[in-house]
Specification:
By secondary structure, the chain is mainly alpha-helical. It has 2 domains: 40 residues; 80 residues, no CATH class. Helix 3 runs antiparallel to helix 4. The longest helix has 39 residues. It is elongated, with a radius of gyration of 31 Å. InterPro entries: DUF4913. This is DUF4913 domain-containing protein. Pfam families: DUF4913.
Length: 166
Amino acid sequence: MTATRSQQAQPGAVTQVDELAAEVARLAARVFELQQAQAERPHAGDQRPLYSTVEEWVTTYLLPTFPRPVSEVGMTRWHWCDQWWRHDEAVTRLTALWYGWEQARLQMTGMLPWLRELDHQLPILYGDDGPFRNCAATGDLGESRHHSSAEMPAEPAPEDWWSWWD
């Protein structure tokens, strides 16, 4: 009686084993396809920047995409300088934003943290204390005006000042 039951169960068990083996083979083939696709996909380090310079990024992406109302000093809360590239602080901040943008664009949700950084940097760049505070952009009220900010004075440190960690 036991032999008869095991003989009857075998055809069903064989069918299940065959089905499981087929499923394993299908999944293995899918894993192989995904691995191939991943290997062929360019990595972030392999991609060249979309923009070749910070100037190209500022003029063709940043300014058209995130416009702000700018005009004469004292007439608006946002300040801009047509000669932005003459302001070292602005170049430093804009270059950092550009580099961050180039990395963020390659990631699925990379723009979310980048936008938070942009929201932090724009008021500093365009604000009343920012590098463009004494400049005026070309507008309805007149010509553009560039004024470099005064440099902060600094005295050289005493000769052994920086050797404290030696």
